[in-house]
Amino acid sequence: MANYQTRHIRDECNCLDVSIPVEEMTRIVTEGDVPLVSIHPQAHGIIDLCVSRATNATDYVAFSHVWSNGLGNPQGNSLPQCQLEYFADAFVEAGWDRARLFWIDTLCIPINQAALKTKAINQMGLIYSAASSVFVLDAELQQIRVSETADHSHMLALQAHILTSAWMGRSWTLQEGALAKACSFAFADGIQHMRSSLPDLERYSLATKKSNGDRLGMLSNLISSRGLQEP
C-alpha cells in the first residue's frame, strides 16, 4: 500500500485531488446508511463533491474497478480532479446527468477507522444490488475503441474482451457484476451497456477452472447469451 499510486487520466497530469466531505460521509456510515457522491463544477474550473444519504428510492450508479488500475487511494477519500471530470463526462456519454449520484469505494469507505471501514465494506452487497447500474472501469477495456467493432465479428471480439478482462478475472469485482441489475462498460470512445445476469457470471467463473478448449466453448455460449447495447 505504501507504494500505491493513484492514477491520473494522463501520466503528465498533475491536477490536485478532490476530497469528499469526510465528516458527513463518516456520519452517514456510522448511522448505518450509504453515502452517495455527486460532482458539481464551480468557477475557475474547480469542482466540488457533495455527499448525500441513499434511500430505498434513490437512483444511483456504483463503480466497479480493479484496484491495481490506480483508482484507489489508501491515503484519503479523494481522487484526482481529472478522474472526477472523466466520471462526469462518462455519465453524459452514458445518457445520464453529469451530477448523477454514484458510489465508489475510494470515496465512500472510511479509511482511518477500522470498525467503520469494516461496517462500510459489509454494506457492499446491498450497495451493488440496489444500484441502477454498475459502472465498470477496467484499464485494458478503456484502451479499446468501440468504433472499430462495428460489424458482428468485431462485436463478438468486443464481448470477448469483456469476458476475459482483468475485471472479470477477479472474484471481488466479478461478484460486484453478479449483483448488478445492469452493467455499463467504459471503452476508449464510448460506453456500452450490458444486461447483467447472475447465472451467466457464475457460469463464466466456473469456466475459469476448465481447460482452454472448454473455456473457448463456454465463452462462445456466454457471448450468445449476453447482449451488448448502444447507450
TrEMBL record:
It holds the Pfam family HET. InterPro entries: HET. Residues 60-139 form the Heterokaryon incompatibility domain. PANTHER family: HET DOMAIN PROTEIN (AFU_ORTHOLOGUE AFUA_1G17550)-RELATED (PTHR39596:SF2), PTHR39596. This is Heterokaryon incompatibility domain-containing protein.
